[in-house]
Amino acid sequence: MKSSTRTAALVTGAVVVLLAPIAALKAWSDPADPRISVGAAAPATLLPGDVRDDTGRMIANAVWTGLVSYDPKTGAAVNAAAASITSPDRRVWTVRLRPGATFHDGSPVTSRSFTGAWTTVLREHWAGSRLLSDVAGLDAAHLKVTDDRTFVVTLDRPMGGFPALLGDPAFFPLPDRVLASRDWASYGRTPVGNGPLRVRSRNAREIVLTPRKGGRDVVVKTMPNARTQYTAAESGELDVATRVPTDRHESMNADFGDRHRAVPGRDMTYLAFPGRVERLASPTVRQALSMAIDRSAVTEGPLGHQYSPADALVAPGILPGHREGQCRLCVHDGKAAVAALADAGGLTGPLNLWYEAGRGDDAWVKAVADQLRRELRLDARPHPVPDLRKAVQDGTVDGPFAVHATAAYPAPVASLAPLLDAGTGFADGYTTDLLDQAERAATPDEGVIPARLAESAMLRDMPAMPLWSRHDHFVWSERVRGVSAGAFTGLRLAALSLKD
């Protein structure tokens, strides 16, 4: 199952340097400026099939309209550019497009706009290629154009969640002219999409997006610093800040009232257990380790309020079938942890916590190791390695290891299935059968129950313990309206408006 960042003269110069960005910021957000301003880090690229960061995803979802979009309230996939997406067996899918759709340059959106774009993503090995090849299990040979508004996709296995996957930027269409020219560099600078906003201009400081059917421009300003964004939004010089500094989380309500929001994410962090290590094979040992970890202390400390403690294996940003509090053993309970470990016969010797060096995990791994030493008197040791995947595959990992997973589409099975490919060796037939049922379900709703049953089974055996999930934070000025966001879309730029 495939899952799977000195002298008077010098003082005068410093003042000039400090005043320059302030003046620029005021110029950006002059009260007379009719544009809606959003602060964000610069995107790595604007090519939808190569999106690899939050800013790129946010812009892509405004500049393009995919075959499906995600309902803001339910998180479910709903047809957008597609008139219908049907299949008799969840393996062979027929996609029919809505008539009359065009790109911003007036050229038509056709079947080849999609199949050509998908073939390009695979051929160029862009960031989205994993979704096409590994998650959906398709290649160029699996795509057949029937006519300008109809094409057929054949997957390598039944997948009921395939339509929900099609809202990812990896599946967005590209115009014929760029597919023919393959001039990705030029196209990536000012791409032409088919969505509600079009790219009017772009430079190092800002990307200006213009509504296709009239309205206010949205300007995405290059402001990677969270404190700069927050302060600018607080003073009214920026309409929406997409980041909040660590030390302002406790004061958001006082600073912004109800003009702030945390959006649950689709990324999860786990500690997984290598199945071949006998002393960690007991579910009771794993459960004891889980209860000994104070997740809130880590998310509020080393992780700087950018993450939420996990209470389930499924990412909280997956709204279909969402349930809270699935993982009772994720609640910190030192006494219960000590008792459980004693019942399991204890755990002696060093306990290495394996993680990838240079990925930014050092602080939280150290904090978890400290907690395990304090709560359970274990000799827990952070153990960074240059290539964790290789260490797992080679079988050299002898302790819990960090796993970072991102759900590819909004369904519980999309969070659970990657854990089977994490390297734990977990292969319980009951659980894998349930996940198979969830993936092959005729409708998303029918896939929820088997996925949740599989989650319950996995929490009992605990091949991987959930730790926390990343979330987005937004704060905004008094003049902006319509601030909404989703785990799979980011901030919805096209929904923003200004107070009348």
Automatic annotation (TrEMBL):
InterPro entries: Peptide/Ni-bd, SBP_5, SBP_5_dom. It comes from the Bacteria. Pfam families: SBP_bac_5 (PF00496). Residues 79-421 form the Solute-binding protein family domain. This is ABC transporter substrate-binding protein.
